[in-house]
Amino acid sequence: MKVKVDFDLCESNAMCEALAPDVFELDDDDYLVVKKEDVGPDDLESVRRAVASCPRAAISLEEAVSEG
Ligand code: SF4
Predict the structure, then answer these.
(1) Which residues contact ligand 1 via a Cβ below 6 A?
(2) In 1-68, beta strands by DSSP E
(3) Which CATH architecture is the domain 2-62 placed in?
(4) pLDDT-derived band of residue 5, with 50, 70 and 90 as boundaries?
């Protein structure tokens, strides 16, 4: 799965970072950084929680497009 963030919606409240710190991080300027777009099985549950908890509905998960 691939994680996408709509940075126009994101209000940098760090909810997603709290739930999935391996994937989301706010930088020193409070700008959200997606540390890894490709979400593996280990991160999927916490990322799903972040998607559900984002008050701006800025995060989405998409099926990774298979190669070829
Ligand atoms: S939870 Fe949503 S609004 Fe908050 S920092 Fe993450 S993407 Fe942005």
Answers:
(1) 5, 10-16, 24, 32, 54, 56, 58-59
(2) 2-5, 24-26, 32-34, 59-62
(3) 2-Layer Sandwich (3.30)
(4) very high
